[in-house]
Amino acid sequence: MSAVAGAHPRTGRDLRLWVRLATATLAWVVLYRLNGPFWNWLLFDVIGLDPAGRVGETIRFFVFDTTKILLLLTAIIFVVTILRSFMSVERTQALLGGRREGVANLAAAGLGVATPFCSCSAVPAFIGFVSAGVPIGVTLSFLISSPLVNEVALVLLYGMFGWQIALLYLMAGLVIATLAGFVLGRMHAERWIEPFVFEMPAGAATGPGLRLTWSMRIEMGRDEVVKIVRKVLPFLLIGIGVGAIIHGWVPESFFARYAGPGNPFAVPLAVLLGIPLYSNAAGVLPMIEALYAKGLGMGTLLAFMMAVVALSLPEMILLRRVLKPRLIAAFVGVVAVGILLVGYLFNAVL
Amino acid sequence: MTTQIRVLGPGCARCQKLYENTTEAIAELGLDAHVEKVDDIGEIVRRGILATPALVVDEELVLAGHVASIPTLREVLSGRS
Known about the structure:
The complex is a heterodimer. Helix content of chain A is 75%, strand content 0%. By secondary structure, chain A is an all-alpha fold. Chain B has a single domain (3-78), classed as Glutaredoxin (3-Layer(aba) Sandwich), CATH 3.40.30.
């Protein structure tokens, strides 16, 4: 870091930041603990709603879940952003450059989870990886796992269904990204890449980059929380709203009859519905929680969520600048088949 | 000498935000600097940038992949003039 900033104001700013962080952590724990008791007291004791009645149950589901999910999201995004600030796309590129396909696909899938990466950087990252000698299939494994294994989804699954389901989702995401990248590499995907990618002279970054200090990492975490919560809030409210209605008003047997684990068309239907839907994990998961309670298969629901987060139209449009339509189609096809298989597998074992 | 500052990124919301923060930080510091937005993918790649938005100050890559806050940018830029 530059020494010019002077020791005194820096120390003051750092101290304030740490004090605020400690206060925020404490407030978080208190709010999380009070969430259930507070709403029960307000809705049932003060307002006098019937805890067993439909209206009471629906309203309680809505307010309790909104608060819980917002609190979980805040904590997760903050911690994950700080952890990820120790990784960078440059480091990932260096780790994967010159590797052979195979194990490198798995490594790329893992790095896709650990690296801070926004799909808006997909084009420069793709060109940079390819010119650094990262095989196409390995690059694609990275680009698939980055949105597919979503930290928000991971922790929300943990919060709603327990660690087993969260772990299954993580493993399934890694396997899909590894294998899909490998398969696409084997299909000689380089034929379907816009030729300019190979002609573009990619330079090495000049300058050491900025050394991040702890206060900068905390700031990044805070900014990311504000940004993501603001972005997902409408999705979340709609998701929880629909979830609350399903929870209180849809009869138990309705979904189980038409889309239960016994129906072989449930999973493909979920994937087909999920591909064009562009939402985020925070919007989809509350609905999933409610649908699961109504008897839908966990595999069907995970497949739906994965299709929503992994295959999004905006990212495909961005990637179209470097990938030919054939490869985009193969990309969507291979990932969709992977999600489909995972859906069937989970429906069969869970 | 005027400091040459470039904000690189393919025109996404995050790039715009970094551009605004940078302009603000420069104004607060009273720096003699020229800020330019670069959205040409060729130039982004040529500079070895993998994550956008990125900040290049006098041909040196300073930040990549995150939107720095105004205080952070003030700190980064004040060490350079």
